[in-house]
UniProtKB/TrEMBL annotation:
Organism: Pseudogracilibacillus auburnensis
Pfam families: Phage_holin_4_2
Taxon lineage: Bacteria, Bacillati, Bacillota, Bacilli, Bacillales
Transmembrane portions of the chain: 6-27, 65-84, 91-113
Claim: Transferase is one of the keywords in the record: no
InterPro entries named in the record: Phage_holin_4_2
Protein name (database record): Putative membrane protein
Key words of the record: Membrane, Transmembrane, Transmembrane helix
Length: 123
């Protein structure tokens, strides 16, 4: 049970790191030093999504409801910017607009990769 959960989490982290690298290739204003940095950033994003994101969602619930869920995209960009601040110079995003667009593209690439690879729990 634990091994499957860990493999599922690690697969998710690995695929998100690939998505981060892909986005860094698309934008000049989105910089990741190397794949090791992308893996570390992906782990940090995983922790932030576990701890910080639910708090932000609860605090912004009224505006999220008013915007019919659109504000979740803003929360994703904020989470990405927080990870970037934690990482320092090895992970740089120049501006919130870039983080907003990048978070959408990262989500799409990650979703595609997860569907391509499948879920570890199913195997």
């Amino acid at each position: 049970m634990f091994v499957r959960s860990f493999l599922s989490w690690f697969t998710s982290v690995f695929l998100n790191a690939i998505a981060l690298i892909a986005v860094s290739q698309l934008f000049d204003s989105f910089y990741i030093a190397d794949f090791k940095t992308a893996l570390i950033a992906s782990v940090i994003l995983s922790v932030l999504n576990l701890i910080v994101r639910p708090i932000l969602i609860i605090l912004t619930l009224p505006i999220t409801v008013l915007t019919l869920g659109f504000f979740i995209l803003i929360i994703n960009a904020i989470t990405l910017m927080l990870a970037q601040k934690i990482m320092g110079d090895s992970f740089v995003i120049n501006g919130f607009g870039v983080a907003f667009i990048a978070s959408i593209i990262i989500s799409l690439i990650s979703m595609f990769l997860h569907r391509l690879v499948g879920d570890v729990k199913e195997k």
